[in-house]
Specification:
Blueprint lengths: L4 H12 L6 H21 L1 E6 L9 E5 L7 H11 L7 E5 L5 H8 L4 E6 L2 H14 L5 E5 L2 H6 L1 H4 L5 E4 L12 H11 L16 E7 L12 E9 L2 E8 L1 H4 L1
């Protein structure tokens, strides 16, 4: 298997830092490095993250390259907030990546999860992760750009109790917040509380993972109210629910 020019340059830089006492030692280090590099290139995986609780507890999920894992601390906080509201709820995991959020929700009792991601490598790894958990019968995987998925009126007719979004950080332009704003406003119409005004029914929650310094306070999201933003290093999660006053 060949490596591209950038990979070769990176390997040369790593090897230049080695302190080798003998040709044999150098050869062994080189052999181990190439084995690791080629293995990562073939599998397209950069690590693992675990399911924290529920029926699939401690299952290790592979993380596709070029995605940011949903850490234990972050997931724990989100699901502590959702608490019993996750049970028998329908979940939409947008920019799903490893599927960490949706699979955690299913493990904790959600009735179904729909995963949307356009990446070919993520699509393959996501399906493998679902198989590991044994939650195939409750999972739907859609290989499509999230923007195209949200632009399909037929998809918007569906209702999801909990919508989780983890957009690529390149979309979080502080000088032009319209892109994220549009994605959230398109997503929110699938929340049950905005489809029918049933006071006894769970109205839904929308959860956005974003850079900590991103100005979520400036987002104009009609009929939604932000209940809290939780910070984790450079990352943050903001949780929105349907504004009951807007339904009155």
């Amino acid at each position: 298997m060949s490596l591209n020019i950038q990979s070769q340059k990176k390997i040369r830089k790593m090897k230049a830092k080695w302190r080798k006492d003998s040709p044999e030692e150098y050869e062994e280090m080189e052999k181990n490095l190439m084995k690791k590099v080629l293995q990562n290139k073939e599998e397209n995986i950069k690590g693992t993250v675990r399911i924290i609780a529920g029926t699939a507890k401690n299952t290790q999920l592979a993380i596709p390259k070029n995605t940011r894992p949903l850490t234990d601390r972050l997931k724990t906080t989100i699901f502590d907030v959702l608490s019993s509201d996750i049970y028998k709820k329908t979940v939409l995991d947008l920019y799903a990546g490893a599927g960490s959020f949706g699979l955690e929700a299913l493990s904790r009792g959600a009735s179904s999860a729909t995963f949307v991601d356009t990446s070919k490598s993520a699509f393959k790894i996501l399906n493998q992760n679902i198989q590991k958990t044994g939650l195939e019968d409750k999972s739907i995987v859609i290989k499509e750009k999230v923007e195209d998925f949200l632009g399909n009126k037929q998809n918007l007719e569906e209702a999801y109790d909990i919508i989780f979004l983890d957009p690529p950080y390149k979309k979080f332009n502080k000088k032009n917040i319209a892109e994220i704003e549009n994605i959230l406003n398109m997503s929110k119409v699938m929340l049950p509380g905005l489809k029918e005004n049933n006071k006894k029914k769970f109205k839904g929650a929308l959860i956005l993972k974003h850079p900590r310094k991103y100005p979520v306070i400036d987002l104009k999201l009609d009929r939604l109210i932000k209940i809290e933003t939780y910070n984790f290093g450079l990352n943050a999660v903001s949780i929105y629910i349907v504004n009951k006053k807007a339904l009155a």
